[in-house]
Amino acid sequence: MSRLLHLSDLHFGRSEPALEAPLLAAISRIRPDLVVVSGDFTQRARVAQFRQARAFLERVEAPLLCVPGNHDTPLDNVLLRFLRPFGRYRRWIDRDLEPTYRDAALSVVGVNTVNPFAWQQGRFRRRALERVCTAFEDAGDRLRVAVLHHPLEHGPEVEKRPMRGAARALRGLSDCGADVVLSGHLHRAGTAPFRAAPGLLFVQAGTGLSTRRRGETNTFNMLDLSGERLRVTEWAAEWDRAGGVAFAPGRSNSFCRDRGAWIRSGPGAGLFDAGAGGAAPVSRGASPGVFPAR
């Protein structure tokens, strides 16, 4: 079995310090083969915030693959955002904006979807799609995972504009054999196959540490891969009456591959949307991969 931990939207500068030690303890307990962080390490891309993020990452007891989020480029320093948008990220997080990872079971490719000229929206560039597909060409039987900050689809309740190039990227990733897309940005967790591309599983992470929870608790995802089966478990922060907090496993959704599509395994098998809590079937009128508001 291979185990991948998906974390996103830490937002140092507007984070909950009491969650840091419990989150690190949970990662140590899980012992993943890889920890993926899909962007937004900081709130305003300030040096002090990047220092905090770096200190946290150095305490993670697992290999790391990181991609930037829009909050990791300066918002209030326009000159710096246009001239050296990723300078601080490269110094404190990773010089490589689109890293890759490969072992016997996983082929993971990071994609930088940040667009410094449209700070929030994001963009999936054509050359990034070509690079991902090239990386997957010789992946063999490995699970092919793409990691990006901005999701490829938004639900109708999301006010943010969708990423430029998302529809083209979804088609391209499906055509070149990608299996899973990990993303963040919305601070909402959910897992579902894309309806337009049922061979692609959309795994959306909530926020790991931010106080901007948007009605949800702080969470991360754990992906367990065994052959053609994949289980996605959401770990959530749970507070006790004394003010203590720990991350614990919560809802879990299992999938298997059947004729190129991800199918929910177990009772009520079929394509479904887990964004509303539990394994509710997706209505035929729903948009692909959309998570309803909770």
UniProtKB/TrEMBL annotation:
Gene3D superfamilies per UniProt: 3.60.21.10
Statement: the UniProt record of this protein carries the keyword Zinc-finger: no
Sorted UniProt keywords: Hydrolase, Iron, Metal-binding
All residue ranges annotated as the Calcineurin-like phosphoesterase domain in the record: 3-188
Stored InterPro entries: Calcineurin-like_PHP, CNP_phosphodiesterase-III, Metallo-depent_PP-like
GO molecular function, one term: hydrolase activity
Domain of life: Bacteria
CDD domains, per the entry: MPP_1
Pfam families: Metallophos
Family affiliation: Belongs to the cyclic nucleotide phosphodiesterase class-III family.
Name of the featured protein: Metallophosphoesterase
